[in-house]
Amino acid sequence: MRSDPVQPERLAGTGPVQPEAGAVAPAMSGAYISVREVSKVYGRGRDRVEAVHRASFDVPKGQFVAILGPSGCGKSTLLMMCAGLEHVSSGRIAIGPRTVDGPSRDIGIMFQDPTLLPWKTALQNVLFPIHIMGLRKAEHAERAGDLLRLVGLAGFEDKKPHQLSGGMRQRVAICRALISDPDILLMDEPFSALDAISRDEMNVLLLDIWQRYSKTGLFVTHSIREAVLLADRVLVMRRRPAAVVEDIMIPFERPRRPELGDTREFVELCAMLRRHIESQT
Amino acid sequence: MNAIGSILPAAVPREATRLHDVLHGAAGWLRRIAVAVLPSVLILVLWEAAVRWEVVSPDRMPAPSAVWGILASHRQILLAQSIPTAVDTVLSFGLAVVCGLGLGILIASFERFRLAVYPYVILFQLIPKVAVAPLFLVWFGIGMQSRVAFAMFVAFFPVLVSTIAGLTGASPSAMRLARSLRASRSQLLFQIQMPYAIPHLFVGAKVAATMAVLGIVIAEFVTAQSGLGYIIMFGASVGQTALVFAAVALLCGIGLALYCAVALAEVAARRWHGGFPAASG
Question: Quick check: helix, strand or coil at residue B10?
Fold first, then answer.
């Protein structure tokens, strides 16, 4: 069951939309991703497990939403249902006018594991979606090279994944998710396997990419800081029953810099979120 | 762009291998070859000594020098008999790989086909193969067809099992990535499953290479027309043990050549593949 959006006390009065939100499209353009009463049940009888319980939320076009929660709260399952990679047990997910009933090529996905094909070079991995979609690789090779340069991998185009570090692999995965210029980017704890320093770097990189391409994004994470730094809005999920319990706007304007994380407002917002999560468990 | 440039480490591709490394590598290889060759040299010397000093009778156990003498004096006839054996072996190996791969792809791709066919393939494999060798003679005549068919029957199972293991063992996250891009069934097979199966396929092919030699020799025993298997039967029946050993040595040569060809192909595949697990011999 979804509760009403909760505003932090300090920020009371700041509406659901941030007028300063610069590159981000206004939230008033309506629901782009619409999740209605979505549940996911595995097994039956005694083995029945409800991974997601009647989740409902809307994401307007251009908004970056973080789904925050402890491990095992069903947040990844929820994301995979939005990606069309898992069926919903009940309820409905729609993207634009289309009900999600399978994977869509308008969606770029980043998984927890970079999932690079070991026999392909960095450039070939970035071009993999183009290859699968049957589009002309030559026409996209330039864009792939630009993306790799943007993420700091100039000179690594012809390296195989085993020659790259974990952070570099995840950067290749970002490029691959962006190569077909999808409207939506779904990210399933993409940086959780990285060390803290690489993770900070990736957060900065993602902020920059967001500024540049302004996609609609769903970002699953269990890091409060990461959620507050990256997102326009944070949905908090809880375990047993797995459900969306809080919907909080993040008021910081863009472009954001990593130094934002050192400000008092940021720290207090994180503390408030942590209290919310703790009160739910 | 600047924000990223300042935060990401400078990207410098690694320099090419230096001469020192090359020489060091060559010395390592020489040492490994020496260690591998030493035991066989030692055994040959002891064997020769044992026969010379009449510890064993030369009729039962001809000295290596006597075997070498036969190889030299009978080289024409031995070579003439080696060629059909070698050709049959390579042919049956090739057919085993093609059939094992083809059937493996069908079994791994179609659930119903697997349920309907795989149990019987396994049952078929439980037959002691030597026991049915005479049947192949009845079915295919005493010519090359029966020998090749029997050796293929002996050799194809390891290819089949490794194909199925490789195709079904493809990285689940890579499969999920391909599904998210709406890859077709054949794209899944050729872009993801087959490349992931390659290391497994070489394990199967190596076993099949040794099994093909075995199958051909058994078939030559049964058909008793030509080939090194026939020479062995003939040599043993007239007490010419040196001739038997000479034929066995040539069989080993054929088997080794085929095995090495597979191993070389594996090295090439590993270089292309990148993410190969450690070599298994």
Answer: coil
Phi, psi (rounded to 5 degrees) for A192? -70, -20
Rounded Cα gap, residues B237 and A268, in angstroms? 95
The CATH number of the domain covering residues in B63-273: 1.10.3720.10
Q: What is the ipTM of this complex?
A: 0.81
First to last CA, chain A: 15
CATH class of the A1-11+28-106+187-281 domain in this structure: alpha beta
Please identify which residue in the block is written with the tokens 């076993």: B207
Give chain A's contact residues with B (Cβ, < 8 Å). Answer: 83-85, 102-105, 107, 109, 111, 113, 115, 117-119, 128-129, 131-133, 150-156, 159-163, 201, 204-205, 208, 257
Tens-digit pLDDT profile for residues A96-153: 888 999 898 889 999 999 999 999 999 999 999 999 988 888 888 888 998 999 888 8
Q: Assess contact for B179 and A103: CB atoms under 8 A.
A: yes
- As a whole number, the mean pLDDT across chain B is 87
Render pLDDT for A22-78 as a digit per residue (tens, 0 to 9): 333 333 446 789 998 898 988 888 888 888 888 889 999 889 999 998 877 888 899
Contact between A94 and A34 under an 8 Å Cβ cutoff? The reply is yes
From B3, B14, B171, residue closest to A204, measured CB to CB: B3
